[in-house]
């Protein structure tokens, strides 16, 4: 487990991910409400050039970002309100994977088969308020995962 002391540490991890992420990648972020998923996404998006603070996509479900706002297309996805995997089909995530980075919060709302090649980050809230991070690193990420 990797310890993230505060929101700034979570955002710094996102910035490190931005240095190795590319279109076609999926970063799945799992953890309870308030665990820091959006902080990681905000750090990544800021490092890709987003000047304003990225909103949580909870209500929009999919928040797209495109050049020149960021270096390459990114979809920030929050699946918390998805009740049925068929609803996700309407979001067009499969099509977007070809040319965008997908940052997916609450990936467990869809079958694991959707995320076979995703870098899967799981965040926990520790008793002292820090965040604990564990990662499942697929083959496509092994030479890029910044914390190995």
Describe the structure.
This protein is of the alpha/beta class and 148 residues long. It has one domain: Rossmann fold (3-Layer(aba) Sandwich), CATH 3.40.50. The chain is 22% helix and 24% strand. It has four helices and seven strands. It has helices at 7-18, 37-47, 85-89, 93-96, and strands spanning 2-4, 26-30, 62-65, 74-78, 101-105, 119-125, 131-136. A seven-stranded mixed β-sheet has the order 1-7-6-2-5-4-3. Strand 3 and strand 4 form a beta hairpin. Helix 1 packs across helix 2 (37-47). The longest helix has 12 residues, at 7-18. It is globular and about 40 Å long. The mean pLDDT is 91. This is tRNA threonylcarbamoyladenosine biosynthesis protein TsaE. InterPro entries: P-loop_NTPase, T6A_TsaE.
């Amino acid at each position: 487990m990797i310890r993230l002391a505060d929101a700034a540490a979570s955002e710094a991890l996102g910035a490190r991910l931005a240095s190795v992420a590319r279109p076609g990648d999926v970063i799945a972020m799992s953890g309870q409400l308030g665990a820091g998923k959006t902080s990681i996404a905000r750090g990544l998006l800021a490092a890709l050039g987003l000047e304003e603070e990225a909103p949580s996509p909870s209500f929009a479900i999919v928040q797209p970002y495109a050049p020149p706002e960021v270096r390459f297309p990114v979809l920030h996805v929050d699946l918390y309100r998805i009740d049925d995997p068929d609803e996700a089909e309407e979001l067009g995530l499969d099509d977007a994977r070809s040319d965008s980075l997908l940052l997916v919060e609450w990936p467990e709302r869809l079958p694991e088969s959707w995320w076979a090649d995703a870098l899967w980050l799981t965040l926990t809230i520790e008793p002292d308020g820090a965040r604990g991070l564990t990662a499942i690193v697929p083959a496509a990420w092994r030479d890029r995962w910044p914390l190995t």
